[in-house]
Amino acid sequence: MVGGTPVTRHQRVLCQLVADVLGVNGVGIGDGFVALGGDSIIAMQLVGRARKAGLRITVGDVLTRRDMEALAQTATPLDQEPAPVADNGVGPVVTTPIMHWFRERGGAVDTYNQFAVLRTPSGLTEPRLVSMVQALLDHHDILRLRLSVPGDGADWSLETLPAGAVDAASAVRRIDVAGRPEQDWAGLVRQESDVARDRLRPGEGNVLQAVWFDAGPDRRGVLALVVHHLAVDSLSWRILAADLASAWQAVEQGAAITLDPVPTSFRRWSHILAEQAHTQTAIAELPGWLDRLRPGSGRFGDPVRVPGQDVESRDRSFTESLPAEFTEALLTTVPSLFNAGINDVLLAGLALALGDWHRGRGTVGDGTALLHLEGHGREEALAEIDLSRTVGWFTSLFPIRLDLGEADRTDAHAVGAEVGNAVKRVKEQVRGVPDKGVRYGLLRYLNPETGELLEKAAQPEFVFNYLGRFEASDDADWSVVAEYGTGLDDTGSGMPMAHSIEVNAATVDRTDGPVLRATWTWADSVVSEADTRELADGWFRMLRALVAHAREPGAGGLTPSDLTLSSLSQHEIEEIESDLRAF
């Protein structure tokens, strides 16, 4: 870390908060959030914690300001802001773009969930847990979501029920594991989580189930939280875990449970999306989206995937991990060298791997890769509201076309400069997506005129989702227990696959450093397990090559979007950088 002692109150607060959310020590005013391993999801957490400390900052500033000193200059005291508008989160919810996407998939609705397993403290009892879960249900409106599915195929109807309408006692189950070694719990946790999944009934307002594995009064257990995906996403898990920790602190002290306020309800957000779908700003993006969705990109096998033929299955998925020695650099050194985000780096490695994979099969097409990307969706571009404490399914899904050009990529395996060039090209292509793609779903699902055109365009057969960075320490109560996963989707039986290959990646912080975990799922009517594993291995190989390249002299550099004089070409920028290095 660069360091530099913070002087002002804003600097001291933000340096400490960044140290807390990233789990590092000694953050100084010269340190940068991204260079320390921060990403957009952690930036959302930082915004929420800063607000609690009385400061307003934005996710955009967190990700773009060069260091803590510059970020502190953007912070404003909350007492200088106007009072927030009253926000009633109870009542009708507009079906959001990602919910429309889910509806179009078909298959079973009730069992589509995410789950996470959290470490529970000794001294927890079932009555205490019920009171804590009740606090979650009453505080977060979306956890009282009720879904109505008309039989005639019409649009869904959603509403959030009043606080108190859902009884936590009916949502909590206790399983006795006292006397059983923890290494024997995994099968039971998976089995009981599946049973809990099958108890979900969104049509009745039942979208959350909690299964506590009680190891006895003097021993720590685990809690499996199973939440219907309509009510939760990756960032939501961090909010729920923090709230459980806060609720436990109150319970231990014999105090009433009081959770931090939620400035903006999910219901309000859903209405904002509906309004934004018809704005000129959104409609102006249509030509760009249609261009990205043009035909011709590399295809996945000769058979065309038949919707509904392949269903989600644990039997057709595997998880691979990149060791900490490489992941640490991917999170810090590589993004810092290229002034890029972790997504840019991961996608550059993926674009290189996809190119090799397609060339080996003769399916390269026009040399580009058409992907769906998932984003957290809580973008400030749509409205200047605080969503850092809002639980719900905010995910945005949008297409991107990655093009590495015609350059010779033969030295990528030899850790040549071309891997760095791939980062630069992909970074510019990602930045070329307006406001992180958040309006694509509005045009596709909430505007009938633009939606018809986008529905007829070519559709990606590959989806990539980086879930962010998770702290997973077995020493911390209410932390995610990494071996059970990090809030990945679980569908139950019969859910049709939406893509030929799906990748969900996350970074899990362990005591020996961060580890990148990627779960791959494939449609075996289109690609085989061997083909999928070959692509997965190729991706990790390219990421290791990027780490090795970052150690070479002169690695990294700026791209046109980094500069005010953006008319400069990439070649011209690199010539200037080369001349400067000569001095």
Describe the structure in your own words.
- The structure is a single chain.
- This protein has 583 residues and is of the alpha+beta class.
- 37% of the residues lie in helices and 17% in strands.
- It is built from 19 helices and 16 strands.
- The strands form 4 sheets. The chain has a 6-stranded mixed β-sheet.
- A hairpin with an 8-residue loop joins β5 and β6.
- The model has no long low-confidence stretch (mean pLDDT 89).
The largest β sheet comes out as:
6 strands, mixed
Strand content: 15-25%
Oligomer status:
single chain
Class from secondary-structure proportions: alpha+beta
Radius of gyration: 24 Å
Helix content: 25-40%
| Low-confidence sequence ranges | none
Count of DSSP E strands? 16
Strand order of the largest sheet: 10-16-15-13-11-12
Total helical elements: 19
Mean pLDDT: 89
Write the layout of secondary structure elements.
Layout lengths: L8 H14 L17 H13 L2 E2 L2 H6 L3 H7 L1 E2 L13 E3 L3 H9 L7 E8 L5 H14 L5 E4 L8 E4 L11 E5 L8 H15 L8 E7 L6 E8 L5 H19 L13 H11 L3 H4 L2 H7 L24 E6 L1 H8 L1 H6 L3 H20 L6 E8 L20 E8 L14 H14 L8 H7 L1 H9 L5 E10 L17 E2 L10 E10 L2 E10 L6 H22 L19 H12 L2
Parallel strand pairs: 7-8, 11-13, 13-15
Antiparallel strand pairs: 1-2, 3-6, 4-9, 4-14, 5-6, 8-9, 10-16, 11-12, 15-16
Helix pairs in contact: 1-2, 1-4, 5-16, 6-8, 14-15, 14-18, 16-17
